[in-house]
């Protein structure tokens, strides 16, 4: 089979092809290419912004973690300071309570000593009164040895009470 090619039709077809190509390029390819380029620029800008935002977020995250760590450290320091202050306050309170208890004990001992001296002086006073009484009874009458012993025994019994 043999194909006959008409040279005029071939040239007109090639010319039509180039005219169609230039028309499509001017009216179709160029606007589509511009739209694709502008869309690509938007995408590139958004990717760049996203990268910048990611870096900023990472920076903020590291700063926040550092601030949190510093806050925890400061919190521990403050707690330790208050523990020390509380211990000093506790020690002062215990010391004051011990001093007060010691003073109460000393006052009680002094009071007991006073009461003891008071009781001793009362006993001495009673003994003196009994001695005077015995002496006055002895002077009133003459006593023999048995009465004398009885008076001494009575005196000892009364002083013992």
Write the layout of secondary structure elements.
Elements: H1 7-140, H2 145-160
Helix pairs in contact: 1-2
Protein name: ATP synthase subunit b
Transmembrane segments: 6-24
Pfam families: ATP-synt_B
Q: Tell me the structural class.
A: mainly alpha
Number of domains: 1
Order of helices and strands: HH
Range of helix content: over 70%
Distance between the termini: 166 Å
Describe the largest sheet: none
Number-wise, the strands total 0
Region (Disordered): 55-74
Membrane topology: Single-pass membrane protein
Transmembrane segments: 6-24
InterPro entries: ATP_synth_B-like_membr_sf, ATP_synth_b/b'su_bac/chlpt, ATP_synth_F0_bsu_bac, ATP_synthase_B_chain
Question: What would you note in describing this structure?
Answer:
The chain has 161 residues and is mostly helical. The chain has one domain (8-160). The chain is 93% helix and 0% strand. It is built from 2 helices and no strands. The chain has helices at 7-140, 145-160. Helix 1 packs antiparallel against helix 2 (145-160). The longest helix has 134 residues, at 7-140. The radius of gyration is 62 Å and the shape is rod-shaped. The mean pLDDT is 86.
């Amino acid at each position: 089979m043999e194909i006959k090619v008409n040279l005029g039709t071939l040239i007109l077809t090639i010319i039509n092809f180039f005219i169609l190509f230039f028309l499509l390029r001017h009216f179709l390819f160029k606007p589509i290419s511009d739209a694709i380029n502008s869309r690509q620029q938007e995408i590139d800008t958004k990717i760049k912004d996203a990268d910048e935002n990611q870096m900023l977020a990472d920076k903020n995250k590291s700063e926040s973690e550092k601030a949190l760590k510093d806050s925890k450290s400061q919190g521990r320091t403050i707690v330790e300071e208050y523990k020390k202050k509380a211990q000093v306050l506790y020690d002062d309170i215990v010391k004051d309570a011990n001093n007060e208890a010691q003073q109460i004990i000393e006052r009680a001992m002094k009071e007991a000593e006073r009461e003891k001296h008071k009781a001793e002086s009362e006993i001495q006073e009673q003994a003196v009164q009994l001695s005077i009484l015995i002496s006055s009874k002895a002077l009133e009458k003459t006593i023999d040895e048995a009465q004398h012993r009885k008076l001494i025994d009575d005196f000892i019994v009364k002083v013992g009470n």
